[in-house]
Structure formats: C-alpha cells, structure tokens
Amino acid sequence: MIQNYFKIARRNLTRNKAFSVINILGLALGMASALLIFIWIQDELSIGKQYDNAPNLYRVMEREFSDGKVVADDNTPGLLADELKKQFPEVIHAAGFSWQEGHVLGVGNKTARQTGCYAGPDWFKMYSIPILAGAPATALNAPNSLAISRKLAEIYFGNPEKALGKSIQFDNAVNYQVTAVFENLPANSSDQYEFLLNWQDFLAKNSWMKEWTNAGPKTRFQLRADTDPNKFNDKLKWFLKGRNTDFSKTFYINLFLQPETEAHLYSSFKDGYPNGGRIEYVRLLGVVAVFLLLIAVINFMNLATARSAKRAREVGVRKVVGAGHASLIGQFMSEAMLLTALSLVTALVLVILLLPVFNQLTDKQLLLPWKQPFFWVGLSGLLVVTGFLSGSYPALFLSSLDPIKVLKGAGSLSRLGNGVGAQLFRRGLVVFQFCMSMLLIVGTVVVYRQLQYIQNKNLGYERENLISIPVEGELAKNYPLFKQQLLAMGGIQSVTNMYGGPLGNGSTTEGVSWTGKDPNAAISFNNTAVGYDFAKTLKLKFIGGRDFSQNFATDSSNYLINQAAAKRIGYKDPVGQPLTFWSKPGKIVGVIEDFHFNSLHQPITPLIIRLANEYYGNILIRTQPGQTTVALAGIEKVYKELNPKFPFAYSFVDNEYQKIYRGETVVGTLSTIFALLAIFIACLGLFGLAAFTAEQRIKEIGVRKVLGASVASIVSLLSKDFVKLVFIAIVIASPIAWYVMNQWLQNFAYKIDIDWWVFAFAGLLSLTVALLTISFQSIKAGLMNPVKSLKSE
C-alpha cells in the first residue's frame, strides 16, 4: 500500500510540474536557510566545550564597585592563579593567561610575526589540547620555554618532532627553547594563539603584575568535579579583601566565576552582571531560522490547498469505491513526505554550494557534519516534522470532503473548502507569514541604520588616513629620529605615539586626587600616555587649554583630561588647576572635547592623559588625503633603515574600527539576506492563495465580466481581501518588532531612535510585494474568457 501511495504521489507531482517546482523551491529555500543557520548556531554553542575538562573549567571575573558604579571584566591580578591553588583544595589546576600579543619569531633566515600569549604551567593540564611533541605537564614550567603550534613547527622546522628542543629567537633578542608542539587550534576554540610562553617570564617583564592592587591578565582554573560552583563562588567573593590595600567603603572588588562553556556566549555585562552577548545573536538567528521554515511550510499548505479543488473529484471517486479516511490521509501525507524529501535533497545541494560563501560572510570554517549522528538525526527530524506540518492540513481537508457533494457537479466544486473556518485558517496563515516577514524587514532596517550610525558617527577624532605601527625592537630608542624623518617626507601631516591605541584603552586607575576630593572616595579613571602632537594627529578639539608642548619642560608632570573627567573632578575652570596622578603632582594644561576611545557599546568615561617618558605602544601617523600609498612606501623605507630586524607592520585605524563591530555587521548582512528570502517564500504562499481564490470564484468572475465588469474591477475585487490581511499583519507585527529591536539597541551606549517611518517602509514594502504577487493571478483571472468559465453551467 505504501508503495502505491508513493507511486500515485510521484505521478501527481510530475503531472503538475509547475506546482511541484514552486513547492519544492519554497521548501528547499526555507530548509537550506534553516540548515545554514543551525550549523552556525551549533558552532557558536560548541565554543569552549571541546575540552575534556570543559564542565569543570572556569574563568575568574572581577566585579568592581567604585564611585557608585559597578563594572565587571576578566582582568585579574597576576598572582591570583597560584594563590587559588594554595588556598582552595577544590582547585585542581589554575593558570594565568595574558592578552594576545604579536611577536617576531625567527629561526635562521625564517623570520615572521606570530601571535601568542603567556600562560601558566597548568595550562595544558586544564585544556586538553593534543600535544604532538613534548610533555604537557612540563611544557611551560621553565623560564624561556616555548610551546608552538603544528603550523609554526612546520614553518620553522619542517615537522613537530624536529622542532622539539630547538631554539627560536624571540623579538630578535632572546632565545626560547621549544618544549612542546601542540595541534593547531580549531576555529571554534575559545582562545586563539600560535604559541605560548612561560608565565614567570611574563611577571618578570611586567613587575606591576605582582601587586594585588593591579589587574590585567586573565585567570583560569579547574574545579574538582564534586565541587558545587555556587558554594565555591561564595568562598571566592571576598578573596581580594586584605590583599588589595586600596579597598575602602567606596571601592572594593568581588570575585566571581564564569563557566568556560558560557564565556563566549555571555560576554556582555551591565552594572556588573551578565547581560547577554553572542547568545543574543544565536537566539535572534535561531528565531529567524524557525520563521523561515514556518513560512516555507505555510507556503506549502497554501499551494496544496489551491490545488485541492482540482483533486476533489479524485477524492470523491476514491471514497465511493471504498477508500477510507485513513488511507486518503496516508496518500496525501505520502505526497507531502515525498515532496519534502525532494526539497531536503535540494536544500542540501544548496547548502553545499553556498557554504563557502556563508563561511566567508561569517568568518567561520563551517562544514556539514556528515559523520556526526546528531546531524542525521536532525535531518530525519526536519524531514518528518516539516513533512507532517506541510501535509497535515491539506490531507485532513481533502480527506474530509463529502463525496456526494463533490460528485454532484462542477458548480459545487467552487464551494469546496470555502467555509468560514477554512477561510479563516488560510487567511490566518497569510497573516502569520507576513507578520514574520514584517519582523525581519523591520529588524533588518534597524540593524542597518545602527551600523550606519556607528560607522559614520563623529568619534571626536578623525580615524581616516590614520595609520598605527607597533613600537618594537630598535624603534623605541629611534622614535625621535623616526618621527623627524617622517615629517620631512611628503604626504605626512603629523606623528605621535600612544600607549594602547585610539580604539581600545582599557587601563583604569583609582590613583587620582585633586583639591577638594573626598579622601575616602575611590574614583576610577581611564588613563593613557601619549607623545607630543597627540591632539594634532588625532585632530582632537580643545575646549580649554593646550596640547603638550616641547616648549614647556614642566609638561612631563602635567596632564590633559577629557570633558567627562573635568565634570567628575568638578573644577569650575580646570585649566591650570592641580592634579595628582599616581602620587605625581602636576597641573591640568588642557581639556579635550570628549572622544570615543572605546567601543560605542560603552559610554565615554573620565580620561586622564599624561606625557609618555618612554616610547612604547603604538606610533600614530596621519597622512595627507589621497597620498596614503606614497606615504606608506616612504614610511616602510625609513622603518627598515631604523629597525631592520623587524618586519614592517601597520594597520589602518578605520579598518580596525570596522573590526570591532564585525559581529553586528555579519548579523546585519544575514538579516538582510534572510528577510528577502522570507518575503520571497511568503509571496509564493500568497501566490498559491491568490490562485486558490481565483479558482474558487471563477464562475463569479465570469458572470461579472458578462455583466460588463472591467479587468481593473476584477483585480480590485480579488486584491482587496489580501490587502486587508497584509494590513492586519502590519498592525500585529509593528509593536512586536519595536520591542524586539529596542531591546537589541540597549546593548549600545550610543544608538539610533526607531522612527515611525521604519514601520511605514516595512509595511509599504510588504504591501507592494504582495500586490505584485496577487496582481499576476488577478489579471490572469480578469483576462479569462467568461465563455470558458461559464460553459459548464
């Protein structure tokens, strides 16, 4: 019997080729989109979970209470990891972990810049990264020890075995011994690095990390499996009390733990507590995937229903000759399953073809997980659920037809499926489709406008034509000569140096005092050190005072502040007023108009700028507009003369700025693509419903034409009901879309307002596309010869 079901199903599908192609295309597009999104979501959810000890791995976080505000981050004291192992028997392993740094690694004539970190000796004990050569337990135990990836081992030595025990010159200064070679980290690794260095070397280079009052590196640890994380969190909370001597009534720090498996997805904090992060994008795109699949399924239902009148006689005849209700349902469900299976195969082909483009768009290395059981279980579930949902309504509708009414004649066919309940159901499906399409359109417009706002917002400085070069090697001592020679070249406007950079300055301190400050108050300030011509190079605006100048020898102990700092300090006229920073008294010589030195996700905070007494961080170079290429060639030439052992490396500040918002850009692009797909698939469903309506009213249209109705009036007759449905969808979807997107915008300290015209645009677009779709069937019905439609009466 089942074989017979599928034989009949195949014949029906081949007999109605146009119907079959439209249905398969609609379902395939919805399923392919959902598959791509689900593969992306699976990759996002897997980050941090690939380690054997993942359920017991944690990160230490700081919740800092200062000046009536609460902020949280993962910067911790450099001594914390070792102390945790000493104080808590629940901690099996712990390791400090530094920020990512670029260093020049050389072996013979092979020299290149690589990216790596410093890590404690327990690192490989906690993280089950495959070791290809060496011992994981002792890989990072000794000073000047170095663990490298398979990639670096092959570049410098040919293979991992040859690399073990060999020396690599580090920054053309110190030789490090390769003590281990680890497998290349997968793309979904929570941390990315090509090499790891001994932690004691890091503390030796950064002595300030040995003080409990300073924080900067990260701390990771592994708990015993039988430890209750919540109870341990309570024990960890006040760990720094008594160690950090800066604690007071207005300033203190609580420690808390964050599971390694949640760190990637829940990286955003508000008022010191988790406030989403990447998980918001996972949820958003997950909803989009479900929407697209539902729209495709509804599209199938509408198209199947549109064909129902033509199959009514078949159902009547089958019932008369003894076909039961169950057998008819089985027949139509088998047709739905066959069509769904064909759609799924088509969807898989589309995914295979589109995956390289999707990877490039999302900066991923996604693959179809053919070898994983969950993938086949998921595909089977998708097939069954989609097939069942797609075929359930048509099967139940057609199998319930009364054979006597069906076989009475063609005139009664026009009334089939046209009851109030059936009409409301089909129209409800259309409203639901366009509600979802409306949500996607509004979301796309809001995301696009926010990204445009970010990209075009006045940051308080000009990021175009601004080049950043890291200070390393001989460049530190040769900086004055380097700057002098650059300024003598053509195409260069100005040069300065800065610790950190204009796009990310996370260094904060409470070591600031001034006349009238409450001695018991601990107030946090961002701070940085810069060279001469800093304001000139970034084109910052002064609202009072001046920039640092070589004409004033006392500027070595003077300070610049931004407006936020001036407001917090409270001087009526800050210029010339005393300010002490890290116990070094000086005066405020200039107040700079607020500029964004961090992401737009964060508000502008008080900033103190001091004059650098040594050259480190980055050199910032402003080039003349239109002369960047020529200027770069000259900069590289001077760089190689003064710092020959290091490869010339640079970045454009505006490009780095775009990278900060790469996640939002990806989501915005995906939203646009999937919104267009949703509209297209929804219109296929509308096309089906318009065809169904035209078929149901074919006799009425014939009579109207005989009585003199014009094509325009026929089109208006068939279109007005659909226009009402779209308007209903707009009314329902608009407040939902506003709420969802308003919540998303809360992640930004600086954001757009959602204007009324966004909903008007989305509604007009939905209405226009719907009218174009309906018009095709309406005009076709209006042009039909009434003789043909009425000859059977």
UniProtKB/TrEMBL annotation:
Residues 287-402, 673-784 form the ABC3 transporter permease C-terminal domain. The chain crosses the membrane at residues 21-41, 284-304, 336-355, 375-398, 429-448, 673-694, 722-741, 756-776. It is a multi-pass membrane protein. InterPro entries: ABC3_permease_C, MacB_PCD, Macrolide_Exporter_MacB. GO terms for cellular component: plasma membrane. It is found in: Cell membrane. Keywords: Cell membrane, Membrane, Transmembrane, Transmembrane helix. Residues 20-236, 437-632 form the MacB-like periplasmic core domain. This is ABC transporter permease. The keyword Membrane applies.
